[in-house]
């Protein structure tokens, strides 16, 4: 009888194990996953031997940041122009699939009296650019499918990389970039400009100073009707009827452009700096507009448009907080990034109405004396109180770069602030504002969301891109040099740029004289 009970107990244990854990499966990207207690789980690969974390990575100070730009279609030219306004930088090389687009960017260098840049073009032109020994940073603004191969080649050739969004299109690319950054000890930064917009930066500063209490919920989105832009995305030859971005949306499900919404709220929630994204559930609508766009351009029936017109992702963190991220580039709506923080003592909201909700007690505790009686958090602060609050908590980075950024431009100036911070950190030997783990965490929603939706909107566990070190750093922070160090670096940068402009004026003058003859 005892033997029978033992066998029965063993059988029950086996049956329970079988009911909670299933054999591995492989998705369209080659990712291995399995069910564990009703959740899709993806293994976190072990860190290869000889590698170590790049949390807080620093490299020797760069007196001059020498840059090569790859991808000069819609976003790249603006970046080239912005860099001509940043002291201590030199645009060394320009690369695009089409040579004419690279050549056209020389006009920005001429306008700024900067020397001409070397030109590279063609399908593999970026490889020759990356092989140069006079480039420190490769700035990548190509179409999405080329972000990873260009970054990979640059890192393998000893360059730091800054990659437009989304910087990686699947988990394998995320892990590859992490491993290369760790192996080669090179920065791999995601160019998420929305982290540098005015409302987001000031609100982040408020959150870090406790104005909202503990932030327990956040929202972000990219809701942008792209109907005016679909025809302007690069097409690979006359047989390409869709352009690269519409084609990508047709072939891939999930939030393929999550980082504008996720980046700023991830910083406010200290992701991989004391908390981590643990589980997500994603859900999308059917494709109505996307499917119709393909049929209109391709003059044929579209049987499978993978990306839903509107995608929603819910994320729960290790510390019990919730993030909601939305993506919609199809339906007629006003532009909206949703940016919203819900705290235990206050509330911040950017779209469609920018404002803060605090009661009189919390506003006073935050250093602003209310000017009206019975102030409560049922509505946004009056204009005068809001302006005083924003002035008190204006982010130091905005104080430094804000006015010039408005003049230079780039999505209202946030692009310029992003570029200035990248150069500032490189010149001062500081950790960058966004590291390769941010890149992976913000970009992985596409594949993880696809896994969720392809399996009846199941829960999906996030891999730990930091490999267990998400709680080592306590709180998200921007790095700064001391005033003395900052001044010395700035003086050297200004002196270099002055000499570079002298060289450029001479070079362009000689070119004009030759053309006149």
From TrEMBL:
Residues 65-189 form the Gfo/Idh/MocA-like oxidoreductase N-terminal domain. Its cofactor is NAD(+). Residues 201-352 form the Glycosyl hydrolase 109 C-terminal domain. One of its GO terms (molecular function) is nucleotide binding. It comes from the Bacteria. Pfam families: GFO_IDH_MocA, Glyco_hydro_109_C. Keywords: Glycosidase, Hydrolase, NAD. SUPFAM superfamilies: Glyceraldehyde-3-phosphate dehydrogenase-like, C-terminal domain, NAD(P)-binding Rossmann-fold domains. Gene3D superfamilies: Dihydrodipicolinate Reductase, domain 2 (3.30.360.10), NAD(P)-binding Rossmann-like Domain (3.40.50.720). InterPro entries: Gfo/Idh/MocA-like_OxRdtase_N (IPR000683), Gfo/Idh/MocA_oxidrdct_glycsds (IPR050463), Glyco_hydro_109_C (IPR049303), NAD(P)-bd_dom_sf (IPR036291). Belongs to the Gfo/Idh/MocA family. Glycosyl hydrolase 109 subfamily. This is Glycosyl hydrolase family 109 protein 5. It comes from Bacteroides cellulosilyticus CL02T12C19.
């Amino acid at each position: 009888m005892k033997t029978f009970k033992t066998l029965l107990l063993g059988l029950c244990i086996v049956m329970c194990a079988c009911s909670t854990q299933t054999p591995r499966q492989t998705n369209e990207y080659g990712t291995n996953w399995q069910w564990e207690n009703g959740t899709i789980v993806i293994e976190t690969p072990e860190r290869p031997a000889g590698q170590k974390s790049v949390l807080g990575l620093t490299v020797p100070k760069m007196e001059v940041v020498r840059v090569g730009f790859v991808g000069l279609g819609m976003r790249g030219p603006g970046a080239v122009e912005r860099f001509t306004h940043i002291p201590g930088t030199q645009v060394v090389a320009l690369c695009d699939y089409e040579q004419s687009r690279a050549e056209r960017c020389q006009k920005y260098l001429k306008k700024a009296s900067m020397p001409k840049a070397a030109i590279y073009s063609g399908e593999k032109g970026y490889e020759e650019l990356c092989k140069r020994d006079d480039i420190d940073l490769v700035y990548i603004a190509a179409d999405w499918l080329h972000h990873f191969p260009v970054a990979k080649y640059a890192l393998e050739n000893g360059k730091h990389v800054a990659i437009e969004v989304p910087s990686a299109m699947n988990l394998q690319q995320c892990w590859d970039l992490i491993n290369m950054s760790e192996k080669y000890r090179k920065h791999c930064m995601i160019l998420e400009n929305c982290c540098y917009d005015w409302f987001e930066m000031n609100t982040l500063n408020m959150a870090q100073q406790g104005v909202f209490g503990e932030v327990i919920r956040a929202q972000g989105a990219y809701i942008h009707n792209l109907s005016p832009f679909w025809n302007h995305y690069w097409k690979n030859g006359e047989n390409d009827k869709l352009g690269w971005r519409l084609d990508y949306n047709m072939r891939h499900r999930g939030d393929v452009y999550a980082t504008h919404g996720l980046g700023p709220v991830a910083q406010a929630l200290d992701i991989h700096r004391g908390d981590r994204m643990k589980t997500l559930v994603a859900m999308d609508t059917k494709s109505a507009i996307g499917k119709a766009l393909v049929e209109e351009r391709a003059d044929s029936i579209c049987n499978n448009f993978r990306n839903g017109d509107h995608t929603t992702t819910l994320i729960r963190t290790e510390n019990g907080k919730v993030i909601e991220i939305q993506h919609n580039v199809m339906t007629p709506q006003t532009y909206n990034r949703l940016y919203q923080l819900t705290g235990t003592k206050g509330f911040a909201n950017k779209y469609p109405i920018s404002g803060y909700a605090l009661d009189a007690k919390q506003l006073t505790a935050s250093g602003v004396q209310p000017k009206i009686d019975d102030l409560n958090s049922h509505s946004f602060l009056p204009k005068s109180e809001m302006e005083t609050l924003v002035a008190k908590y204006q982010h130091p980075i905005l104080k430094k770069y804000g006015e010039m950024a408005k003049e230079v431009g780039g999505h209202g100036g946030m692009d310029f602030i992003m570029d200035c911070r990248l150069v500032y950190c490189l010149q001062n030997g500081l950790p960058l504002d966004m590291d390769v783990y941010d890149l992976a965490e913000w970009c992985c929603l596409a594949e993880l969301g696809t896994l969720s939706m392809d399996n009846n909107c199941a829960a999906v566990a996030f891999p730990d891109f930091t490999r267990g070190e998400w709680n080592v750093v306590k709180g998200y922070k921007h790095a700064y040099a001391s005033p003395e160090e900052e001044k010395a670096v700035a003086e050297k940068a200004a002196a270099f740029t002055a000499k570079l402009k002298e060289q450029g004026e001479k070079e362009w003058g000689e070119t004009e004289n030759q053309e006149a003859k």
